[in-house]
Design brief:
By secondary structure, the protein is an alpha/beta fold. It has 22 helices and 13 strands. The relative contact order is 0.20. This is Sugar-binding protein.
Length: 435
């Protein structure tokens, strides 16, 4: 499995997918009925072999015969995918089914009436309704309406740590924010940077605010922002989260030069592996990054735990932030809706689940847990799975969830907060002004 580039394409790619001014000219026949080929457009990376096998399996199935249709897969190279999807969706040859990131990546298509609301379809279909973890299904929604079927692995954000450092200094994984601050003090006294942070990339900084807002105010704070209520940036939880992040920065939790350290060139992972930093808040792809760059460390000394609770906060410690998964969405003018829905049902199957696991992914299907012994690292895979399975809420990474035209200005403001160019109150004011 590709490591940090998965996050990079997920984050940066999502910001280019949707665009204003899309017109509702759908796919070829535009019948929306049954009969005819279903054209499925997907992101063409190393994981596309899972979708290729699904298409082959479906096309040979009784379900395809019943629906009088087959699926044709169009693979678009990763870096080209967002722009090609946008162009296709504005043409008479739009795909019937297409890969996306949920949230802001599909909002413009929804507003142009180009998507089928799948809520009733999912609720009335036992395979789709019970086939996926509820928090992941909900993360594909916009304004409580479901527009996506999960089709790849989960990528929650968690805290990774150096087991050797923790053992040497008799440290325990913190369960509360106060315990985390106490841990920071002990590590600094030992002249060890508490947390690695790839500040040069900015999006690793965002993860801190995502979790702090959740733990302090609960998932509903950002849910309002995701659905377009910019006044929700003024929620007290956002200011308190910014203040907590600033306290960490001022206390030296990330060291002095974090703004010149990158994740994408391996700088931040190296700090953790080499014992110069004790912990690292990062997406689950950190494991495969470490395995590729520092295999001995990954196998022997890499540990992980959930982000701690915030004392007095409204958020549940079981809540997760990150990238729930990728989704299939259906064009409102799909040429063969029956075949499209039948194809989407395969994503909940055991065969599809096994293919994802073989690719190094942790599937979001409800049957996945019993199959994870076949994973490259069953212990880590099961930890992730149970984390997401037990999560009351899974908040999509902010830079993917907000409108694409807001994503980059928001990241700019996050960076200004972290490098000391704005105060927590200035940060909140700037975010409230984003449209």
């Amino acid at each position: 499995m590709e490591s940090y580039s998965r996050r990079w394409f997920l984050g940066a790619g999502a910001g280019v997918v949707a665009a204003a001014g899309l017109t509702a000219c759908g796919s070829g026949s535009g019948s929306g009925g049954s009969g005819g080929t279903v054209n499925a457009m997907t992101y063409g990376d190393d994981a596309v072999k899972v979708q290729e096998k699904a298409v082959t399996r479906f096309n040979a199935s009784a379900a395809a015969k019943t629906a009088k249709g087959k699926v044709k897969l169009q693979k678009v190279p990763g870096a080209d995918y967002p722009a090609k999807l946008r162009t296709a969706m504005g043409s008479p040859n739009a795909p019937d089914v297409f890969f996306n990131w949920g949230g802001g990546s599909i909002k413009a298509y929804k507003e142009a009436d180009q998507l089928i609301d799948l809520t009733d379809t999912i609720q009335s279909d036992s395979v789709l309704k019970s086939g996926f973890l509820p928090s992941v299904l909900a993360s594909g929604a916009l304004e409580n309406k479901m527009y996506g079927i999960p089709m790849r692995g989960m990528q929650p954000v968690l805290v990774f740590y150096n087991k050797t450092l923790f053992t040497e200094h008799k440290l325990q994984a913190p369960k509360t924010w106060d315990q985390l601050l106490d841990l920071n003090a002990k590590l600094k006294k030992a002249k060890i940077t508490p947390f690695a942070l790839g500040g040069a990339d900015i999006w690793p900084e965002l993860m801190w605010l995502e979790y702090l807002v959740d733990r302090i105010g609960g998932p509903q704070v950002f849910a309002k922002i995701k659905d377009g209520d910019t006044s929700a940036w003024g929620d007290p939880a956002v200011l308190k989260a910014a203040e907590a992040a600033k306290q960490l920065i001022d206390d030296g939790a990330f060291g002095k030069g974090f703004s010149s350290v990158a994740y994408t060139n391996g700088g931040a992972p190296a700090l953790l592996a080499k014992g110069r930093a004790a912990m690292h808040l990062m997406g689950s792809w950190e494991y495969s990054t470490q395995l590729g760059k520092f295999p001995d460390f990954a196998k022997k000394d890499l540990g992980w735990f959930a982000f701690p609770s915030y004392d007095g906060g409204a958020g549940d410690i079981r809540n997760v932030v990150g990238n729930p998964t990728n989704y299939w969405s259906v064009n409102a003018r799909v040429s063969n809706k029956d075949a499209a829905i039948a194809f989407l049902r395969d994503c909940a199957s055991e065969a599809y689940t096994k293919d994802l696991i073989a690719n190094g992914d942790v599937p979001t299907t409800t049957i996945a847990e019993k199959l994870l012994d076949a994973s490259p690292n069953p212990e880590f895979a099961k930890f992730q799975y149970q984390m997401v399975q037990n999560a009351p809420a899974f908040t999509l990474s902010w830079d993917q969830a907000v409108d694409p035209n807001v994503s980059q200005p928001m990241l700019t403001e996050v960076n200004k907060l972290f490098v000391g160019k704005s105060s927590p109150s200035q940060f909140v004011s700037a975010l409230k002004g984003l449209k």
